[in-house]
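Suppose you are handed a protein chain with no further information: no name, no annotation, nothing but its sequence. What can you learn? This example shows the usual starting point.
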Amino acid sequence: MKRVKNWGITLVILYAVLWISTQGDSAEKIVNLAPPRNIQAASGENAIAVTWEDSPDEAKVQFAGYNVYFDLKSSPPFSPDSLAFVVQVKKGVNEYVVNGLDNNQQYFLHVCSRQTDGGVSEAGLPETAAIPQSDGKKFTIPMFDYDVSTAPSSSGYGWSRENGQDIPGHHNEMQRVKYIDILMMESPTAKGKSIFISPAEADFTKEWPVRNKTLIADIGTDWRLADPLPDAAFTTSAEIRYGHVYLIKTHDNYYVKLRIESVEEMTLYLPYGQKRSSVDLNKINFTYASQLGQSYDQFLSAKP
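A reasonable first move is to predict its three-dimensional structure. Written in structure tokens, the prediction is:
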């Protein structure tokens, strides 16, 4: 597969949903068309995910879609003829993931609206830059056993399906339950131990409007796997062990890997007036990486 420095690129998008065409040297004119907004990019393994918000003009008849421009150098002010590569995406699409990029090489991106005659808008802001990394961005995140004192913030997490690299958002039982992929709670069978558990399996989620079914596999201490795991390796809960790596499979076949960096027992002191003055809970820190721009096999074998 060619790298983008040779202007070869492979788009990793569900072709049943998106239509994309690629072109290199066509001259384009700037037209009075509102650009897309809030351009963002996130790094993956030899990949960049680009997202944006709709152009206010998307409902117009002459609105055809979006052009996404890549280059190895920054290009303000924007000129469609000054950037070396363009990808065309139809309207209604707000993201794509590009494979075949060089890790540790910075790429600059612009996204413009496109009309049916080929004219393009000014570039949406901001100009965005990203550097593909091995296994994408990795974050160290704290997590606690589920308790009424930790429930609003740190006992459950969910991952973005749009770009795969957002810091996972904590759950809120009133607003964000549908995005929760994994929960942490005290083990019901081993004193002083904690487990990861699928939201669909936890008793305390019975009143939640959405209880996602997540599958979890403890793959030992090695981050990389040579072969895909059999279905039998996944369960709906797993004991949390220091140094172990867990493969998380969400209800919609999205994969996340976690490594437990620390496990400790903590005493959380509660505000005055509570029924309890404190609560003893386990706290972990984990590093994670998600399946941005990679096949399942690539994701399993990627370096940490």
